[in-house]
């Protein structure tokens, strides 16, 4: 049962291969098995590749199965259409387009499996790229909000600086009137005289201004700090919105690019393995000598060609014979006097009718 299935996969003619020896059948069963398992590998590779695209198991399996059937049909067609010739060069020229197609199929099949085989290494590279992208993303978003944040912080610093300057002024005035009262500066008279009162009043006025300034600026600072928190919240929200996009940066193209960053030798040998598997049926058929199946297939084709040639020859003879008969028939008709007189009478009648019709038209015009 399995042997019949593999013979079906090889694309060999059922009636011819069943009449061949067991060894010939085994050869084509091996070719069919290679075609089948190549399609299985294509199904696995295609399913994995499509899973990275759709991120859905059912879609991946369905489209992977369709892809495997497509590869199976192509391989079966390629193998079944290669026929043995008398010269190897003729066979190679005949098979060269199919070999190119097999190489393309092998590359397409091997790439998703390479991605799966080197998945851990690829994930490491993708993690590094994601981290770098996250840092760059935060920097770009921060640059976008930075001007507003800097402006807000500058206003807060300026308001605090005004308060600090006023506090320094009040402190200086306090030191001045205390020194006047102690007699260590100013008039250097101990006690609270008129100068002391004047300096004390100036200090009290500045202190009142400081109290008013603190109240006013503190309200502004509180408002600016609230705006700063809103800006920071917007920045954090924007980073949170864009982070899932960065986290989802692990599609098929990203993994292929990450695979290209790995050493090329392991990937190259895996591709060579699939290339060998994909081209092995073609190579086996090219290198193997003509077998029983090839002779019987050639015999069947030759029989069909002979029948077609005979039918064409008979058709040509029939056409030549019919032409000769019709030539003789029309030659005899040409010599028939009765037919000649009949046609002559009818021709004269037509000419008379034409003359009468022309005469009537002329008379009407006059």
Helical fraction: over 70%
Radius of gyration: 51 Å
How many β-strand runs?
0
Q: Which structural class do you get from the secondary structure elements?
A: mainly alpha
Number of domains: 3
Helix tally equals 11
Low-confidence stretches: none
List the helices and strands and how they pair.
Elements: H1 2-10, H2 14-18, H3 22-54, H4 57-80, H5 88-117, H6 119-182, H7 194-247, H8 252-260, H9 264-287, H10 292-334, H11 337-365
Report on the architecture of this protein:
The chain has 366 residues and is an all-alpha fold. It has 3 domains: 2-118 and 263-289, no CATH class; 128-252; 307-365. Helices cover 89% and strands 0% of the residues. The protein contains 11 helices and no strands. The protein has helices spanning 2-10, 14-18, 22-54, 57-80, 88-117, 119-182, 194-247, 252-260, 264-287, 292-334, 337-365.
